[in-house]
Write a structure and sequence with these properties.
Length: 209
């Protein structure tokens, strides 16, 4: 994740500015919390990676991250416990959203700005009741728009390409209440991307229900 952040110019530039003592009030987020330290240490680490000819150890960033989120500091007799990569990325992105609500060169904070402006897209979900008669299905389709910050790529024996896994994850069967049938029923939910974010995060899911 850190390597990916480093390759996003507008994110890296603002993280380095934040970490190197820039005017943090310009980012419109909280200014005195453990989350601030996480973002500041991340920015300082990225600056070191760009300017040091020696190997850079992420000790300061890891310490701040574990202090802010103690679940990632759990230890066993063998050392630090293994952590889920997606959980840590999700927590880090949440922290960045809270602290970097707005980038200084953005005109306002309406809509998707700051971190959300980089990673959040729009999804259209179409939900159809499988148990309705065919002549009633089209008239009772439910369409919703919602934001998304990542896509899942389901990996199974039939997955040969990234597009296969993404397509599989965009369609699913769900059970929910049908007001027409006045009982729970099986619905098909199909997601379609309405607007891609500038940078798309894909989670590879090897095990899923």
């Amino acid at each position: 994740a850190i390597t990916c952040f480093r390759s996003i110019p507008e994110l890296k530039e603002n993280l380095i500015s934040y970490g190197n003592g820039g005017d943090v009030t310009r980012f419109s987020g909280p200014q005195d919390s453990s989350s601030n330290q996480v973002v500041a240490k991340l920015g300082q680490m990225l600056f070191s990676l760009d300017n040091s000819v020696e190997a850079v150890a992420p000790i300061a960033f890891l310490s701040a991250f574990r202090e802010a989120f103690p679940q990632f500091a759990q230890r066993s007799n063998a050392g630090y416990s293994q952590q889920d990569a997606d959980e840590s990325l999700t927590q880090l992105l949440y922290t960045l959203r809270e602290v970097l609500k707005k980038f200084p060169d953005e005109s306002d904070i309406s809509g998707n700005s700051g971190i959300n402006g980089l990673f959040v897209g729009q999804m259209e979900s179409t939900i159809t009741c499988n148990e309705l008669p065919d002549d009633q299905k089209a008239a009772n389709v439910e369409v919703k728009m919602h934001e998304f910050s990542k896509l899942s790529c389901h990996i199974s024996g039939d997955t040969n390409h990234l597009s296969d896994g993404l397509t599989a994850a965009l369609s699913e069967s769900i059970e929910k209440h049908s007001p027409i049938l006045t009982r729970n029923a099986i619905f098909t939910k199909v997601d379609r991307i309405a607007q891609l974010p500038p940078y798309l995060i894909v989670q590879f899911v090897r095990f899923f229900w």
